[in-house]
């Protein structure tokens, strides 16, 4: 998908080049979009704990599905059809994380009990600031296009499971999943973005547009126990919204 997107953007840019001779007359382009991020991200973690004079373990599987993305940006034309801009995208979603724990037995060594359960309300929030060089295309009439790329400053907040609580009763051969404790971890990184915006102007200043942007990221999160978890974030999102020119 990533390779196909880049090829499509390059082909569209080459196709539009001959029409780019007309100078884009407006100085400012504002866009406000609702979009859908299609990428699904999976991550896995394992942590250890002391219980009944032994070491227990918990494996956690995180899966973040695609969802709604808000995207808004502004660009300023600086020379001919070249502009500088910045866009902000925001994605948040609540998911469940599946856990599998090995709980040491209170009476017998090397005879752990295994228990599985789901941690609900595991929240992820992605905030990205896309700094862009923008190439503006004005074929004439109501159609406008903009191709952008540049660095992205990416911030991620992710809930991590830190403890699983269980219920148990004599003779303690089995345990029952009760709940999962969580803690929010933060991480940031610098990555890149490429995008294309196809606009149809309804009036001289107002129009609608369709946007596609690709901005992948891998973020290191600080986990309890002086551990680091690397998780993937961002990806491809596409949508549309309003355009304002002046």
Layout of SSEs?
Layout: H1 2-16, E1 28-37, E2 41-51, E3 54-64, E4 67-79, E5 82-103, E6 113-140, E7 143-168, E8 175-201, E9 206-223, E10 227-245
Antiparallel strand pairs: 1-4, 1-10, 2-3, 3-5, 4-5, 5-6, 6-7, 7-8, 8-9, 9-10
Q: Care to count the β-strands?
A: 10
| Global shape | elongated
Number of helices: 1
Coarse structural class: mainly beta
- The Cα radius of gyration reads 24 Å
- Please bin the fraction of helical residues: under 10%
What is the CATH class name? Mainly Beta
Number of domains: 1
Level-2 CATH architecture:
Beta Barrel
Main sheet properties: 8 strands, antiparallel, barrel
Overview of this structure, please?
With 246 residues, the chain is mostly beta strands. It has a single domain, classed as Beta Barrel (Porin), CATH 2.40.160.20. Helix content is 6%, strand content 75%. It has one helix and ten strands. The protein has an eight-stranded antiparallel beta barrel. The radius of gyration is 24 Å and the shape is elongated. It starts with a helix and ends with a strand. The N terminus is likely disordered.
Keywords for this structure?
246 residues, mainly beta, Porin, 8-stranded antiparallel β-barrel, disordered N terminus
Quick recap:
The chain is mostly beta strands and 246 residues long. It is 6% helix and 75% strand.
């Amino acid at each position: 998908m990533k390779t196909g997107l880049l090829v499509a953007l390059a082909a569209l840019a080459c196709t539009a080049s001959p029409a780019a001779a007309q100078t884009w007359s407006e100085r400012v382009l504002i866009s406000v979009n609702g979009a859908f991020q299609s990428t699904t991200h999976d991550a896995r973690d394992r942590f250890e704990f002391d219980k009944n004079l032994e070491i227990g373990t918990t494996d956690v599987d995180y899966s973040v599905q695609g969802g709604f993305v808000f995207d808004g940006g502004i660009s300023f034309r600086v020379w001919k059809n070249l502009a500088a801009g910045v866009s902000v995208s925001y994605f948040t979603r609540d998911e469940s994380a599946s856990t599998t724990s090995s709980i040491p037995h209170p009476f017998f060594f090397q005879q752990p009990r295994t228990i599985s359960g789901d941690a609900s309300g595991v929240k992820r929030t992605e905030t990205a600031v896309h700094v862009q060089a923008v190439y503006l295309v004005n074929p004439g009439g109501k159609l406008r296009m903009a191709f952008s790329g540049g660095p992205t400053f990416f911030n991620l907040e992710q809930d991590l499971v830190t403890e699983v609580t269980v219920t148990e009763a004599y003779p303690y051969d089995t345990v029952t999943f009760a709940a999962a404790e969580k803690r929010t971890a933060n991480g940031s990184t610098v990555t890149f973005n490429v995008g294309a915006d196809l606009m149809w102007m309804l009036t001289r200043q107002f129009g609608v547009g369709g946007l596609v942007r690709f901005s992948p990221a891998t973020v290191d999160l600080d986990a309890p126990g002086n551990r680091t978890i690397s998780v993937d974030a961002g990806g491809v999102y596409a949508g549309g919204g309003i355009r304002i020119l002046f």
